[in-house]
Amino acid sequence: MVDARRFLAAALLALAVSMPALAADATPVPASAPSASATDATVKFEAPTATLTAADPALEARMLAITGELRCLVCQNQTIADSHADLAVDLRQQVREMLQRGQTPDQIRRYMTDRYGDFILYRPPLKATTAVLWFAPVVLPVIALAALVIVIRRRARMADDEFEPEPMLDDDAAAQPLARPGTLA
Amino acid sequence: MKVLKFLIPLAIFFTLVGFLFKGLYLDPREVPSPLIDKPAPEFALTQLDKPEQTIRRADLLGKVWMLNVWASWCEACREEHPHIVEFARLKALPIYGLDYKDQREPAEQWLAERGNPYDASLFDASGRVGIDFGVYGVPETFIIDKQGVIRFKQIGALTPEVLAGTVLPLLRKLNG
User: What would the pLDDT profile of A148-184 be if each residue is shown by its tens digit?
Assistant: First the structure.
């Protein structure tokens, strides 16, 4: 009983450790919340419809697909696709024009990282400086599971009398209270 | 063995504390610019007060100069501006303004009211040159060396501490 609870606690801990990895995949704030960054006095806002020259829906869709994976540096946590900040409006126009000139999404992403760095990418590239970011979510649970397995195996080899006596099993269950404080710790 | 059992969780704990402690002092708004030690982007812009005169990147080669991105609509620029006016009195280096996404009239009025520390202000109405310089939070300031390479970038307002503690020593190094 005691062991089972401890293993459960360890498993929960391992899960908790790997939670940040899941959080990193969270979707950005939807466009319907422009007020979130309206307090930033140096940011200029524009009505989103003002520059949406959706003359070509196919082009617009390609533009949104690319800018949907780019971070708006003015109101971080939004994408360039759904930010109302002035710079995001300009960058959407920039992407439209680059697509019209026949440039590829890779060239456009290169254009952005040349100016703003990898930080603008919501999918960071795999390189030496981002290795921890990419591998920690895999490596940490592996370490946690390995530790768990080692502890279970070691305990399986232990003789019964090395464990604390369990009142529920050793004594008459009916005569005992369900759990005496201090014996489970 | 017994000691190790305590030391390992303790080491993990302090590693986490270390990361969190470092995180306290990280400003997510300060994104390291990939433009540092790269050639400044090409530009050709008219002067704010002389629309008929164009300044190009090539015109400024051969000297260490400062590019200060500002705008009349920018709140933080109002705080920064007196420090730049003060700094310009030292005549330590030529200071060029980049009037970012602005209109000529309010911009000129802004300078008339607050003093004009700039050797010239480049007028970037569309913000295209700003994008090429990776500007995302006005005010921003760049130091560009004699070869036209960006050596320093400040995101947000310059302070007297940054000017005296970082800009001037860098200037001595670049001119030395």
Answer: 999 999 988 888 777 776 666 555 555 555 555 555 5
Whole-Å CA distances, B134 to B95, B131, B157: 19, 5, 16
Q: From the CA of A1, how many Å to the nearest CA of chain B?
A: 23
pLDDT of residue A8: 60
> Quick one: DSSP state of residue B124?
E
Q: Tell me the C-alpha distance between B148 and A116, whole Å.
A: 19
Gap from A73 CA to chain B (nearest CA, Å): 6
Say what the pLDDT of residue A36 is.
Answer: 38
Nearest-by-CA chain B residue for A89: B127
Lowest mean pLDDT among A115-124, A154-163, B81-90, B119-128: A154-163
Q: What percent of chain B has pLDDT over 70?
A: 99
The nearest alpha carbon in chain B to A17 belongs to B16
- The sign of the CA dihedral A85, A90, A94, A96 is positive
> Which residues, 6 or more positions from B28, have their beta carbon under 8 angstroms from its beta carbon?
A76
Interface test with A, best of B27, B131, B135 (most A CBs within 10 A): B131
Among A116, A118, A150, the residue to mutate for chain B (most B Cβ within 10 A): A116
Query: What is the per-residue pLDDT across B54-78, written as a single tens digit (0 to 9) for each?
Result: 999 999 999 999 999 999 999 999 9
Task: Please return the burial class of B40, using the count of CB atoms within 10 Å of its CB with bins 0-12, 13-18 and 19+.
Answer: buried
Which tokens in the block code for residue B20?
Answer: 């969190």
CB-CB under 8 Å, A91 with B133: no
The ipTM (two decimal places) reads 0.79
The pTM score is 0.69
Which amino acid would we find at residue A48? P
CA distance A174 to chain B (A): 38
Distance linking the first and last C-alpha atoms of chain A:
12
Helices A105-116/A86-100 angle, 10° precision: 140
User: Inter-chain contact A117–B74, Cβ cutoff 8 Å?
Assistant: no
Nearest CA in chain A to B41: A115
CA-to-CA separations, A40 to A35, A44, A74, B102, B137, in angstroms, rounded: 10, 9, 9, 18, 10
